[in-house]
Automatic annotation (TrEMBL):
<dbReference type="GO" id="GO:0016887">
    <property type="term" value="F:ATP hydrolysis activity"/>
</dbReference>
<feature type="domain" description="HMA">
    <location>
        <begin position="10"/>
        <end position="76"/>
    </location>
</feature>
<dbReference type="InterPro" id="IPR018303">
    <property type="entry name" value="ATPase_P-typ_P_site"/>
</dbReference>
<dbReference type="GO" id="GO:0012505">
    <property type="term" value="C:endomembrane system"/>
</dbReference>
<dbReference type="InterPro" id="IPR036163">
    <property type="entry name" value="HMA_dom_sf"/>
</dbReference>
<dbReference type="InterPro" id="IPR023298">
    <property type="entry name" value="ATPase_P-typ_TM_dom_sf"/>
</dbReference>
<keyword id="KW-0472">Membrane</keyword>
<feature type="transmembrane region" description="Helical">
    <location>
        <begin position="128"/>
        <end position="148"/>
    </location>
</feature>
<keyword id="KW-0479">Metal-binding</keyword>
<dbReference type="InterPro" id="IPR023214">
    <property type="entry name" value="HAD_sf"/>
</dbReference>
<dbReference type="GO" id="GO:0043682">
    <property type="term" value="F:P-type divalent copper transporter activity"/>
</dbReference>
<dbReference type="Pfam" id="PF00403">
    <property type="entry name" value="HMA"/>
</dbReference>
<feature type="transmembrane region" description="Helical">
    <location>
        <begin position="187"/>
        <end position="207"/>
    </location>
</feature>
<dbReference type="GO" id="GO:0005886">
    <property type="term" value="C:plasma membrane"/>
</dbReference>
<dbReference type="Pfam" id="PF00702">
    <property type="entry name" value="Hydrolase"/>
</dbReference>
<dbReference type="InterPro" id="IPR027256">
    <property type="entry name" value="P-typ_ATPase_IB"/>
</dbReference>
<feature type="transmembrane region" description="Helical">
    <location>
        <begin position="353"/>
        <end position="376"/>
    </location>
</feature>
């Protein structure tokens, strides 16, 4: 552990030990937030982690850890693999292990057994001194942890679950000891109450630990995908045949020693250790735990592979591109961890309640004790009812309700290729009534082909020279249409003409000056039809391209722009040719729209294509509304208008005038990022750009549009679990405290109910693990 000033990292994670309830969480969070230089701090009870952002150079790690320890909890810097890599369910003999639970019940059984036998007419009980002998080790050995933690919380000026348990059981034990020393009637003793309470709390904590372990299984499953070593081939070798490598030609290196550019040999049945590109070999690769794709994907030379995926039947040589924290697997783990440690907005209410919960419970217990003493004139009954109030009110379930559901929901979603990185998405998703799609790369495959190049009648230049000129403009571009144009030129054995002064025109296209050919010295421009919206030549272009639009194809126009001085003015442009591109719809595009309609969600497509082309695609898959010829910068404006209903007529059944709509945007490109950020829920295809994924709250790892409905479904289910858990957590206390105060719950039953409430909340959250995407659930 380093204690030096944090001058390079503004964000880090601590593992927190000793938290037991929502009050603990609030106290740690308050202590962290009060440290000078801490900009933000959030603590998660389910993961037992704190995430802190600080100003560089203002606080040391030692300062942060000391602040946590002063509140009565332990803290240490988290490992790079995160808290989920730890064994959350303690070992059998550990402090929170099953051994203490078993031992506690062995000692307590003779104490409460007479109560069980009494209804059957069996009048038997231990002597008071035997009861004292059995209850004392339970109270002060097995229950010592409650005294220690309760004392620390009291010294920190707050209370927690441990303080309530310590006060309640001590009161019951003390009353029993007083009666034993002053009376010979063993049946008036309450040692069984204090002992069973401690046993039930220990059992509840053990069950919580077991359930927490299951909620974080998704991250641990991802972490287990990392192989420990990689077979790195000597860089001096020129022979890369995947089946001809000898043992003396590679080194078995630890994964953290593998660098980008290394060539890695992957045998059949091994996990691929790095993100990279296949240099040699052919195989099927199982990426199911990374993308949710259920069937292995065929991979050959030049195909990209993801580290952690399972190689099939063929040996591969892979050139490493990304290793360690830069890999896709690391990014997935980081996104899931971030989602599981952040707080949903509804948690703010829970935090406000938890901050005053324990002091309020202690006051209620005092009022209960005094009220029953005055009314019943019995100090023993008054103390027992006060003890019941203290025990039933432990706020464990309240602290676990939200994070447990978030962990389970985001974990199972990640397993099937849906990465929910922002818990706020969970609160918004159940309200969604409109989903807007980008077209290219989202509903379509995103790998268009040049179908036809059609010159205008006045142009007396060969088609090959026009193709060479257009392809020359796109050299070096990674845009899908650019790749399609260059690939077509290559297939036609046409050499692109180099250009000078190439300039990308955002929202329009690209222009440059060909070095040779018929257009040498001219400024030529390849641009979208939508960018000609106010041009006088638009009618001629539309007439020439109408047949292509009717078939749903994308059309670009090659222009001679030598006479134009302003890229925003199209009046001086001379059209040279139109280029028609075709892009296939994704296999499940229509299924995706049908699934959204089944959820009563309106679908919209926002495209830069001509209206006729966009409508053709929309009609083929059943999209409700189309917004075409939309410049990239205007997509966010469309989203904003969809949210305020101003784009729909008042006659629309889904869109009453003035109604606030909740809109999701689905896209994959840089130009989609503003719209993704503007939408209530942004969903990015992982097949797109990093910018789009950073702007979105949900990333769809397979790039499959049918995952959109699945993402909404699991988000809704997770949100419902949060609400159910909070309802039951509050219900247990709302119903239990009055029952305990009026004597309808004995201390033993109160302890059982308290443990049951936490277990119920966690078990309810774990039901999310049974969720399956629609495609799998129907198979």
């Amino acid at each position: 552990m380093t204690t030096s000033k944090l001058t390079h990292s503004e964000f880090f994670t601590l593992d927190i030990g000793g938290m037991t309830c929502a009050s603990c969480l609030n106290r740690v969070e308050k202590a962290l937030s009060s440290i000078p230089g801490v900009e933000a701090a959030t603590v998660n009870l389910a993961t037992e982690q704190a995430r802190i952002r600080i100003k560089p150079g203002t606080a040391s790690l030692e300062d942060i850890i000391n602040a946590v320890e002063k509140t009565g909890y332990s803290a240490k810097e988290s490992t790079p693999q995160g808290n989920a890599s730890r064994d959350v369910a303690k070992s059998f003999w550990a402090a929170d292990g099953l051994a203490r639970v078993v031992l506690g019940f062995m000692l307590s059984t003779p104490l409460f057994l007479p109560m069980v036998l009494m209804p059957f007419g069996v009048d038997w009980s231990l002597s008071g001194w035997w009861q004292l002998a059995l209850a004392t080790p339970v109270q002060f050995i097995l229950g010592w942890r409650f005294y220690v933690a309760g004392y620390k919380s009291l010294m920190a000026g707050a209370g927690n679950m441990d303080l309530l348990v310590a006060l309640g059981t001590s009161a019951a034990y003390g009353l029993s000891l007083y009666l034993l020393l002053n009376s010979s009637h063993a049946h008036e003793l309450y040692f069984e109450g204090s002992a069973v309470i401690i046993c039930m709390v220990l059992l509840g904590k053990w069950l919580e630990a077991r359930a927490k372990q299951q909620t974080s299984e998704a991250i641990r499953a991802l972490q287990k995908l990392w192989p420990e070593h990689a077979k790195v081939i000597d860089r001096q070798l020129t022979e890369l045949g995947s089946s001809s490598i000898r043992p003396d030609q590679y080194r078995d290196l630890p994964l953290d020693q593998v660098l980008p550019g290394d060539r890695v040999w992957v045998l059949p049945g091994e996990r691929i250790p790095v993100d990279g590109t296949i240099l040699s070999g052919t195989s099927h690769v199982d990426e199911s735990l990374l993308t949710g794709e259920s069937t292995p994907v065929k991979k050959s030379v030049d195909a990209k592979v993801i580290g952690g995926s399972l190689n099939g039947e063929g040996a591969l040589v892979v050139s490493a591109v990304a290793v360690g924290v830069e890999s896709v697997l690391s990014q997935i783990i980081r996104l899931v961890e971030d989602a599981q440690t952040q707080k949903a907005p509804i948690q703010k209410l829970v935090d406000q309640v938890s901050a005053i919960f324990v002091p309020a419970v202690i006051v209620l217990a005092l009022i209960t004790g005094l009220g029953n003493w005055l009314y019943l004139d019995s100090i023993s009954i008054a103390i027992l009812r006060a003890v019941s109030v203290l025990v039933i009110a432990c706020p464990c379930a309240l602290g676990l309700a939200t994070p447990a559901a978030i962990m389970a929901g985001t974990g199972v979603a990640a397993r099937f290729g849906i990465l929910i990185k922002d818990p706020q998405v969970l609160e918004q998703a159940h309200r969604l009534d409109i989903v807007a799609f980008d077209k290219t790369g989202t509903l379509t495959i995103g790998k268009p082909r040049l179908l036809q190049l059609l010159a205008f009648d006045h142009v007396k230049v060969s088609a090959d020279e026009i193709l060479a000129t257009a392809a020359g403009l796109q050299l070096g571009s990674e845009h899908p249409l650019a790749r399609a144009l260059i690939d077509f030129a290559k297939d036609q054995h046409v050499l692109p003409i180099s250009t000078s002064a190439s300039t990308a025109l955002p929202g329009i296209g690209i222009e440059g000056i060909p070095m040779t050919g018929a257009f040498a010295g001219h400024t030529v421009r390849l641009q979208s039809v939508s960018s000609l919206e106010n041009s006088s030549i638009l009618p001629a272009v539309l007439k020439k391209a109408q047949d292509f639009f009717d078939q749903g194809h994308t059309v670009s126009v090659l222009m001679d722009a030598s006479s134009s001085q302003d890229i925003t003015v199209s009046s001086n442009l001379t059209p040279i040719a139109i280029l028609a591109f075709g892009d296939e719809l994704k296999p499940h595009a229509k299924q995706a729209i049908t699934a959204l309609h089944a959820l009563s969600i309106r679908t919209v497509m926002i495209s830069g294509d001509n209206l006729a082309a966009a409508q053709t695609v929309a009609q083929s898959i059943g999209i409700d509304d189309v917004f075409a010829q939309i410049m990239p910068g205007n997509k966010a404006n469309i989203i904003q208008q969809l949210q305020t209903s101003s784009l729909f007529s008042s006659a629309s059944s889904n869109s009453a005038s003035g109604k606030k709509h909740y809109v999701a945007m689905v896209g994959d490109g840089v130009n989609d990022a503003p719209a993704l950020a503007m939408a209530d829920v942004g969903m990015a295809m992982s097949t797109g750009t990093d910018v789009a994924m950073q702007a979105a709250g949900i990333t769809l790892m397979r790039g499959d549009p049918s995952l959109v409905a699945d993402a909404i479904d699991i988000s809704k289910r997770t949100w419902n679990k949060i609400r159910q858990n909070l309802f039951w957590a509050f219900a247990f206390n709302t119903i239990g405290i009055p029952m305990a105060a009026f004597g309808y719950l004995s201390p033993m039953l109160a302890g059982s109910a308290m443990a049951l409430s936490s277990f119920f909340v966690l078990s309810n959250a774990l039901l999310l693990k049974r969720w399956r995407p629609s495609q799998l659930s129907t198979q």
